[in-house]
Amino acid sequence: MPKHIAILGSTGSIGTQTLDVIRAHSDKLVVEVLTANSSADLLIQQAKEFKPNTVVIADESKYTQVKEALIDLDIKVFAGADSLSQVVQMGTVDTVVTAMVGYAGLKPTIEAIKAKKNIALANKETLVVAGDLITKLIKENHVFLTPIDSEHSAIFQCLTGEPQEIEKVILTASGGPFRTKSIDELQKVTKAQALKHPNWEMGAKITIDSATMMNKGLEVIEAKWLFGVEADNIQVVVHPQSIVHSMVQFTDGSIKAQMGLPDMKLPIQYALSYPDRWHSDFERFDFTKYPQLTFEEPDFDKFRCLAIAYDALRKGGNAAAIINAANEIAVDAFLKEKIGFLDIANLVEKAINGIGFVDKPSYDDYVATDVETRKYISSII
Ligand code: NAD
Ligand code: MG
What we know:
Elements: E1 3-8, H1 13-24, E2 29-36, H2 40-50, E3 54-57, H3 63-69, E4 76-79, H4 81-87, E5 95-98, H5 106-114, E6 118-121, H6 124-140, E7 145-147, H7 150-159, E8 166-173, H8 183-187, H9 191-194, H10 204-212, H11 214-227, E9 234-238, E10 244-250, E11 255-259, H12 265-273, H13 304-315, H14 319-335, H15 343-354, H16 363-380
The structure holds nicotinamide-adenine-dinucleotide (NAD) and magnesium ion.
């Protein structure tokens, strides 16, 4: 039985690579829904190729363009952010790939789980903001969540067939483009430099998050919710070659690692094939071509976002929702060249001190925290 897939954010880095995987496994994967924020041309092209049941363009000003382009095909077209939450509930869909970026993914992910859809999750911000809520809903609705993030896919793969307790999770980090720069140098780095990641081609937001190492901070929080490990048992290790995608240490001291060349198509495919493995023709890793795989401690003074994320995880409540919202606004401002690189961490820290703490947040509390933090940080910028 093929899986029937909805992709939230089909025009982005993860979205297009998900379609590459589907193209290679069209006997096992069928596209039901494609959605994009504003990339109408690419969405139209994808719809013509994959002939989904439904497409959504979140940007309403692009509705007519998409509708007219697909008029001769039997494809429903909707616009607006609310439509995202509706199409994931469609009866024909069984799996939702959350490949959209940021907090905007939270509501459609919740609606998908409530409609009993399995989730292949790339949109880590959803787990960062409301991990307790999401994990609770996953259990209540008896659905699967498989991680797409390469580190979490690695851990997930290491844990397959292991009923044992985890002693520690070791999350690897490339260190990003500024791993060897001094704090003084970081003061002056440009948007163009920050957008050049050494090992991965990704969307703009996550690429900046990788440069500040906030991405690794968000992933520490993501790991807590996916695998039930506490902050003290999640270690970040900088591994510039990005070959070891992450590791698990068990209570007998044994460590399992998952390895391979950096290619997101592999974790995307595994998230969709699990519990099976499907053949792929992705380039194979050759140990003899990498005589040195190196590992080092992260520099928490230089990459303060990583330290702030650990603190937020330890604090709990709405702290992670605060840092996520502040970071989204700060990264956007950095990409518009309104603030400097180190201002991102400064602003996230200001948000933690400036926004009220809620110990046991409800969904409405998370929404309020997000709105309030965005307003507060925008007013400072
Ligand atoms: P991207 O910017 O390349 O693509 C984002 C997609 O989401 C696009 O299709 C865009 O149209 C859509 N989108 C963006 N904002 C939206 C909104 N407000 N409403 C509706 N649609 C919206 O991003 P990406 O690099 O593919 O990352 C997507 C997610 O996957 C992020 O959460 C990121 O952290 C995570 N992730 C990405 C990678 C990677 O290699 N790119 C790796 C691990 C995790
Ligand atoms: Mg990752």
